[in-house]
Write a structure and sequence with these properties.
This protein is an alpha/beta fold. The protein has 15 helices and 21 strands. Strands 1, 2, 3, 4, 5, 6 and 16 form a seven-stranded mixed sheet that branches. Helix 3 runs antiparallel to helix 4. The radius of gyration is 24 Å and the shape is globular. It binds flavin-adenine dinucleotide (FAD).
Length: about 475
């Protein structure tokens, strides 16, 4: 079957590439081996946030006199899990299949792999193979999978990955979480609130190591207060579980043993590119695919890699941004129109990937960041100053609840007087992030930011305090 564009993988990113290609009138096929909607809808963003929202709301309510006494009891775990199940449509993709139908793309169910230039072979659930050819482009949007370290006993111990941690139908009594990155701290927060006794095992010295250090410190404080145990500077040497059932014993380097009911490895992601025929087009199976700003794979004029699989920013919103750009670039190249490689609306260059990626960690407290941390800005050679302010000192934050604990930091580029990055950590800061993203992406001069007056009494008045602190 011949198409203009073949999209491999129907996660949020593949869906958006297909949408843009169809909007440009290109005949488009989408190949999906599991569920249309991808990791994000069924085992990542949506179920994890559905588990976390009650935990965060409860933690916030407990800091508000007049309300706190009414929310002393535990969460209704069964109701939280049931609501989470609704958010994943009970792991059925009919709704998203309907959406793909609606845009006029064809869906092929099965495992797709490249078979030389512009050819994709799809092996269906019944073993039959279909060949799809692409006149203009193949877009690889196959995402990532969890990495589980190859330690003695791990395979037999049936550990949780992010999939089980977001889809479990029971609350383990004791849960060991290995890894202090975003997935580790979010899942530790959720399951501790749902009733598990969580032990977090961290190899390094802090949580959220890619963010400003105060973010991880605040999250660690709240997790500990919630009853979780955090162990720093420890590594797992092996895991034991008799016959794959019963308690699991985690053996640490040095021989100490920690017993639990489940163990979650939140130890990173690998590209789902090991079995997609990369060798047939001269690329290494299992590798992250390196692309230019239009998401075209290096050295190719037809193969695109969009979203997690290109390793630029492993986030749904950033992958969808790339998808809009890649889809438009595919359409422009198909029409023989020159690409707009500027920062203009509708351009064909994913420039935000380099310096302005926003991210929210949905923990208690929330962490919201965009752009560079102080360490990253200095490493990049910018002459910068970090400006810090305690968010709890802002009137809006004091109204939010008693003992509001949170901090904000902006990284000012001293040569250009613009912001290179902003990090907020504190209750409710996720919804403030977009103001920072606009300031960073728009390279808004500090002098102009002064005239963006935050409403009183909101937490956004932190902007005023940061600017005053910078000027004085
Ligand atoms: C626990 C967790 C929580 C997260 N929370 C957030 C969050 O709150 N916000 C956020 O922005 N990001 C979050 N992320 C990251 C987010 O899930 C990813 O960035 C996003 O899913 C990437 O989208 P994608 O389309 O590139 O890949 P995926 O969502 O992984 O989709 C890839 C699709 O390709 C299919 N596929 C793979 N190989 C083949 C093949 N050979 N043939 C056919 N189909 C194939 C897969 O079945 C899948 O459906 C989270 C991740 C995890 C693990």
């Amino acid at each position: 079957m011949q198409y203009d564009v073949v999209v491999l993988g129907a996660g949020p990113v593949g869906e958006n590439v297909a949408d843009r290609a169809r909007a440009a009138g290109l005949r488009t096929a989408v190949v999906e081996s599991e569920l249309v909607g991808g990791e994000c809808s069924y085992w990542a963003c949506m179920p994890s946030k559905a588990l976390l929202r009650p935990a965060i709301a409860q933690a916030e309510a407990r800091k508000l006199p007049g309300l706190s006494e009414s929310v002393r009891g535990p969460l209704d775990a069964a109701a939280v899990l049931a609501r989470r199940d609704d958010f994943t449509s009970h792991w059925k993709d009919d709704g998203q299949v309907g959406w793909i139908d609606g845009i006029g793309a064809d869906i092929y169910r099965g495992h797709g792999r490249l078979d030389g230039s512009r050819r994709v072979v799809v092996k269906g659930p019944d073993g039959t193979e279909q060949v799809l050819t692409a006149r203009h482009a193949v877009a690889v949007c196959t995402g990532t999978r969890a990495v589980v370290p190859d330690l003695p006993g791990v395979a037999g111990a049936k550990p949780w990955t992010s999939r089980e941690a977001t889809s479990s139908q029971h609350v383990p009594g004791r849960l060991v979480v290995v890894g202090g990155g975003v997935v580790g701290v979010e899942m530790a927060t959720a399951w501790q609130a749902l009733g598990s006794q969580v032990t977090l095992l961290i190899r390094g010295g802090g949580l959220l190591p890619k963010m400003e250090p105060f973010a991880g410190e605040l999250v660690a404080g709240a997790l500990t207060e919630a009853g979780a145990t955090i162990r720093y500077g420890v590594s797992v040497a092996s895991v034991e579980r008799d016959g794959g059932t019963g308690p699991v014993t985690v053996v640490l380097d040095g021989g100490e043993r920690v017993e639990a009911d489940e163990i979650l490895f939140a130890t990173g992601r690998a590209p789902r590119s090991e079995d997609i025929g990369l060798e047939s087009v001269g690329l290494r199976p299992g590798s992250w695919l390196t692309v230019d700003d239009s998401c075209l794979v290096e050295g190719s004029d037809w193969l695109y890699a969009v979203g997690d699989v290109n390793h630029r920013a492993l986030l749904t919103h950033q992958g969808k941004y790339q998808a809009r750009i890649a889809g438009a670039a595919i359409a422009a190249r198909a029409a023989g129109v020159p690409l707009l490689e500027t920062d203009r609306w509708g351009a064909h260059a994913a420039t935000a990937d380099h310096a302005a990626v926003p991210q929210v960690v949905f923990t208690d407290p929330e962490v919201a960041s965009v752009g560079l941390t102080l360490a990253e800005a200095e490493a990049a050679g910018h002459r910068v100053r970090a400006v810090d302010y305690e968010i709890g000192s802002v009137a809006g934050a004091s109204l939010y609840g008693d003992d509001y604990t949170g901090r904000a930091r902006m990284i000012v580029d001293l040569d250009r007087e613009i912001l290179r990055g902003v990090t907020f950590a504190g209750p409710g800061v996720g919804e403030m992030l977009h103001s920072a993203t606009i300031a960073v992406v728009g390279e808004v001069p500090i002098d102009r930011l002064w005239h963006a007056v935050p409403a009183y009494p909101t937490i956004s008045e932190i902007w005023l305090r940061l600017l005053e602190t910078y000027r004085h």
